[in-house]
Write a structure and sequence with these properties.
The complex is a heterodimer of chains A (112) and B (116).
Chain A lengths: L4 E3 L2 E4 L5 E6 L6 E7 L5 E8 L2 E5 L7 E4 L6 E5 L8 E8 L6 E2 L3 E5 L1
Chain B lengths: L2 E4 L3 E5 L4 E3 L1 E4 L4 E8 L6 E6 L5 E3 L5 E5 L4 E6 L8 E9 L9 E2 L3 E6 L1
Parallel strand pairs in B: 2-12
Antiparallel strand pairs in B: 1-4, 3-9, 5-6, 5-10, 7-8, 8-9, 10-11, 10-12
The chains are: A mainly beta (112), B mainly beta (116).
Chain lengths: 112, 116
């Protein structure tokens, strides 16, 4: 069964450093999403992406964040200058059509 | 704005007890409804979903949920829980629109602990 994959599974970084989280959505899916879950809290929407542009973004998704689909398979989330409060689990999701979003296993980001 | 609330933050049950987790949502239009489960250290897994049709939805692992439109509710049930059901359960909703693929709004989650 096709699935969304994410790398790395765990990323540790120093405050102020840039990180890139990578996702490979399911191949025929057209809509892509990033969510995050701070430890012990609910899953929050960050951004949706379609046709090579952002469809919607939340207030969390400020200028420090960016997304890109650099090729036909990868979908990346970049955090330019990480802060302590960016520590969270980041989930990528994708969808083909009117169906549920398929979530990846997540990347745990730890900012020291 | 859409929002999702879940009735219980933490539920503790003994094995074989029945489970009902409450979920209410706030949205004026037609919605898709979901229950996700997150086992310790694992990623989100879809338990069941409601898009349209029969409001009683059956999912994996013996779970079911009932959509009551008049109450804006989508409660999750299981007649007899097992220790392996210990996990975090998230109710979620997105707008049911044929021209957009809206974000999923998650509830705060209910932590279920099943005691052997």
């Amino acid at each position: 069964e096709p699935e969304v994959t994410q790398t790395p599974s765990h990323q540790v970084t120093q405050m102020g450093q840039e990180v890139i989280l990578r996702c490979v959505p399911i191949s025929n899916h057209l809509y892509f999403y990033w969510y995050r879950q701070i430890l012990g809290q609910k899953v929050e929407f960050l951004v949706s992406f379609y046709n090579n542009e952002i469809s919607e973004k939340s207030e969390i998704f400020d200028d420090q964040f960016s997304v890109e689909r650099p090729d036909g398979s990868n979908f990346t989330l970049k955090i330019r200058s990480t802060k302590l409060e960016d520590s969270a689990m980041y989930f990528c999701a994708s969808i083909e059509s009117l169906d549920e979003q398929f979530f990846g296993p997540g990347t745990r980001l730890t900012v020291l | 704005a859409q929002s999702v609330s879940q009735h219980n933050h933490h539920v503790i049950l003994s094995e074989a007890a029945s489970l009902e987790l409450g979920c209410n949502y706030s949205y004026g239009g037609t919605v898709n409804l979901f229950w996700y489960v997150q086992y310790p250290g694992q990623h989100l897994q879809l338990l069941l979903k409601y898009f349209s049709g029969d409001p009683l939805v059956k999912g994996i692992k013996g779970f079911e949920a009932e959509f009551i439109k008049s109450k804006f509710s989508f409660n999750l049930r299981k007649p007899s829980v097992q220790w392996s059901d210990t996990a975090e359960y998230f109710c979620a909703v997105n707008a049911h629109a044929r021209t957009s693929y809206d974000k999923v709004i998650f509830g705060p989650g209910t932590s279920l602990s099943v005691i052997p």
